[in-house]
Amino acid sequence: MKPGIKTFLIHSSLFIVTFITTTLAGAEWTYGKSVLVGGYTWQDFYSGLPYAICFLTILTAHEFGHYFTAIYYKVRTSLPYFIPLPPIPLMLGTLGALIRLRQRVYSTKENFDIGIAGPLAGFVMSLGFLFYGFTHLPPPEYIFTIHPEYEKFGPDYANYVYAPGFLPEGSLNVYLGKNLLFLFFENFVADPTRVPNIHEIIHYPFLFAGFLSLIFTSINLLPIGQLDGGHVLYGLVGHTWHRRIASVIFLGFLFYAGLGFVHPKEGMEVLWYKIPLFIGFLYMAMRGLALSNRDTWMYALALFAVQYLIVTMFPDVRGYSGWLLFAFIIGRFVGIQHPPSENEAPLSQGRVVLGWIALIIFIICFAPNPLEIVEIVGEGQVIGT
After folding, report:
1. What residue spans define the domains of the chain?
2. Spatial distance between the Cα atoms of 17 and 95, rounded to a whole number of angstroms
3. Which whole-number Å values give the CA distances from 343 to 78, 106, 111, 238, 246, in the listed order?
4. What confidence score (pLDDT) does residue 381 get?
5. Which among 189, 194, 92 is positioned nearest to 143, based on CA atoms?
6. For the segment 256-270, what is each residue's pLDDT rounded down to a tens digit?
7. Mean pLDDT, range 361-367, rounded to an integer
8. Could you give the CA distance from residue 297 to residue 152 in angstroms, rounded to a whole number?
């Protein structure tokens, strides 16, 4: 088999599998229809298409933004590799997609253009889908077709169904956080009588997929290392300032992610092993700072000490532990620093403006707590991420 045909088959197969798994995920998030439960039909599968088409269109736009810009600069690159996730509960159907640059980019300008093209393309597509979703919201009674048990409470169902005691013990309640852009659409674009409850947005495929796409965009635009935002920051401030700013942002991100992960209320029967394990985790994540071994341990201990002091003084203060894995991936694999470019010519004024716009997009798309999962335990709730 010719290499070109083999490569095409790999990329197309990954996309087809990802399309299937994302459609299955969409059916489960929107209507609670799981392929792992008996009685699953083709109609159930089709119900996941709005979510899959929206989500994958945005991801595809993002990756081809990188791809076509790289081609423009004659940088050899791969087609997007889509990453499917198995159709199990609480999965999104995909981990996204990536392209592989097959040669080094030597120019700051080229790095900047290739890096920023993906997030901008995905962001524009997200705006379109979110605008459509918020301007075509179904009537409030739509939620009763998914949760018929809510109907007896009428329009005020939210005052009853989320109270302790209504949902059976062991069930999960999932709701989204908010970012500035999502709040703008809710307050200035949507019909306020049709805006869904925060717990039910997962049943609105254009809103849910659009929100997830904004989160993916904000993650890519984190101004750290060789993430898209790292390329943007490098182009704006150069190597020396990028090293300083990216390190501070990474430490702040790691600090927030781990805040409250180790809590005094857990008791010594848990803390005696959880504290050293978590400090070791922080040390491993911080290796990307390229400090000496001693300094890395000191940073890890200091970060943990401040986190523990804060939650001791303010027990209800918590970060979002869902970011810990991503922080670890950045620190250990993606890298916190950006390698120097051989051609450090400054960006044009237009690119500088575009770079600052991209960082503003990061701010309005980022949600500190994007997804909360609440397990019902007796009379109360235990929150996980």
Report:
1. 1-99, 104-246+346-385, 247-334
2. 12
3. 24, 6, 10, 11, 21
4. 47
5. 194
6. 999 999 999 998 999
7. 95
8. 57
